[in-house]
């Protein structure tokens, strides 16, 4: 079953179970997919769908600190549930140790010696961790490694 089909099946299930958070989250993903397909006049493949989900996940993770500042526990709980749902559609996330190993290999491969060459390293690392790691975490690890050189 493709990811699009899985999303449609999950939407129907969420509607039957009256799970509004899951229904709303899946609808946002599906509308993001549809928007890109209409704008670019293409059919998104699995990688494209994963990109949409990853963007939704990043958006929610970026919003979380703001909700925590405002002290809205109800919104924080809802956002955490949405993050959990989105992570369910992405491939298994890499551990920090696994990301560290990939970053070390990329630094060695690129020959980067300073933070100014971070782009070279990220160009190698990003395709390897796509959808399986938060780019903010990857960027911080790359920066930390290059600053230590």
From TrEMBL:
Gene Ontology molecular function terms on file: carbon-nitrogen ligase activity, with glutamine as amido-N-donor
InterPro entries: Asn/Gln_tRNA_amidoTrase-B-like (IPR003789), GatB_Yqey_C_2 (IPR023168), YqeY/Aim41 (IPR019004), YqeY/Aim41_N (IPR042184)
Superkingdom per UniProt: Bacteria
Species assigned in the record: Anaerotignum lactatifermentans DSM 14214
Transmembrane segments: none
Protein name: GatB/YqeY domain-containing protein
